[in-house]
Design goal:
With about 425 residues, the chain is α/β, with parallel strands linked by helices. About 30% of the residues lie in helices and about 25% in strands.
């Protein structure tokens, strides 16, 4: 059982170098399970009992409960991860290297992108309006670190990277300029003049792998937060006949603040919930009533205690790897967790028979935030922030515990089923 789940999450991670690829992967899975794609559905049609909509790198899926819509049980997670995006006019030729210029997306650990065999993935928008995804199957670029002989004090001083000068990637040698748009055209098999715009990024070409002499860890790019996306969708697929209406919302742009047309601060979830409510015959007042009785779990990875840096955690509230999902609390509302939403998650863990832990950051170390407070603010729904503990957050390659992944999936399934 555990092995099957780990194979599922690895398949998803390897197939999803960008949020759009993730949405494509998840929507195929949902379609196979009988969910109807309502992305292009006419406004006059009402939503089916199980369906989903896609908007670029975001997706909302639902399964109506037997009670129709008296309340929603919502799980939210984000599809994006910090990375290096390729600029619209990226080509530059210098000193025998053909390079691509990058723009930094979100807050990556920049050093983690050095000396990796990188692939390129993204999508192109064509003149006819269609969107074509592409992804290299072999590594084709590299950002090399300066040799220690040319940077003698790097181990004492620490690595300092100039964000503009030191991150371009080499993808060919020699003097002949390779045009990036022409290359994208060859990837999607169209003429270059058919392409109007391209959105592309680098990714670590190493697939997700199990690590540890006890096989207890999973290493991959994008665990934050595609691991939570997997747990949420897997829980929805396992919840065959819920009482309450179950909704999973996967949002893009969390790493840059969520304020976008498809981010958690946009209207995507709100509008979808209203249409689901209307499909089950609820009035506007009935919909507002349903919202006030609904709940949301915002699942976004947490920081496990690092073996070399135990001082970075408050030890009474420090998630240990492979000891269960963490409840994330912050009284200043950087996390949305309330006493009642915390109790709801604890009950879900107990009925799934999985352990849970608590995370509160040290007072002298401000914590991050998630989509939790944003959705709670927009919808007025009691929300809990939880996460799979991991190390190396925002690295090109992160690591988390295998049993924590499975425990989160079980806790979310139990939440949706209740
Ligand atoms: Co995150």
């Amino acid at each position: 059982m555990t092995t099957d789940l780990v194979v599922q999450v690895r398949n998803q991670l390897d197939a999803s170098p960008t949020p759009r690829h993730l949405v494509e992967f998840v929507s195929t899975q949902l379609s196979v399970a009988g969910f109807i794609d309502c992305t292009s559905q006419n406004l006059s049609e009402s939503y089916p009992s199980s369906g989903f909509i896609k908007r670029a790198g975001s997706l909302v899926a639902w399964r109506q409960g037997s009670k129709k819509v008296e309340q929603f049980r919502i799980i939210g997670a984000h599809t994006d991860s910090p990375c290096l995006k390729i600029k619209p006019r990226p080509d530059e030729s210098k000193f025998g290297w053909q390079t691509l210029q990058v723009e930094i997306y979100g807050g990556p650990l920049l050093n983690s992108w050095l000396d990796r065999d990188l692939g390129i993935a993204g999508h192109a928008v064509l003149r006819d309006g269609s969107v074509k995804l592409f992804c290299t199957s072999t590594p084709i670029a590299r950002i090399s670190q300066l040799a220690i002989h040319l940077d003698r004090e790097v181990n004492e001083r620490g690595l300092i990277l100039d964000k503009h000068l030191h991150l371009s990637a080499a993808w060919a040698t020699g003097e002949k300029a390779l045009d990036f748009t022409q290359w994208v055209a060859s990837q999607i098999d169209v003429k270059p003049e058919k392409i109007i715009s391209v959105d592309a990024q680098f990714f670590d070409s190493l697939p997700a792998q199990i690590v540890g002499v006890d096989q207890s860890l999973l290493a991959s790019g994008r665990l934050d937060n595609q691991a939570s996306c997997w747990a949420a969708i897997s829980a929805l697929l396992e919840t065959q006949s819920p009482q309450d209406t179950c909704v999973v919302a996967l949002f893009d742009h969390e790493e840059v603040g969520s304020s976008s047309a498809t981010g958690a601060a946009g209207p995507l979830l709100e509008h979808t919930l209203e249409r689901i409510a209307s499909a089950s015959g609820l009035s506007r007042i009935g919909y507002l009533q349903a919202l006030s009785q609904s709940s949301c779990i915002s699942a976004d990875n947490a920081h496990a205690v690092h073996h070399n840096y135990p001082d970075r955690h408050d030890h009474a509230h420090a998630p240990i790897v492979n000891q269960g999902p963490a409840l994330k609390m912050n009284s200043n509302q950087r996390y949305a967790t309330s006493s009642t939403s915390a109790a709801m998650f604890v009950r879900a863990c107990e009925s799934a028979n999985v352990n849970h832990q608590m995370f509160v950051s040290k007072n002298n170390m401000p914590c991050g935030t998630t989509i939790g407070p944003i959705t709670a603010t927009r919808l007025g729904i009691d929300t809990v922030d939880v996460g799979i503990p991991q190390l190396s957050m925002h690295s090109a390659r992160e690591v988390c515990g295998v049993s924590d992944l499975v425990a989160m999936q079980k806790a979310l399934t139990s939440y949706l089923n209740n």
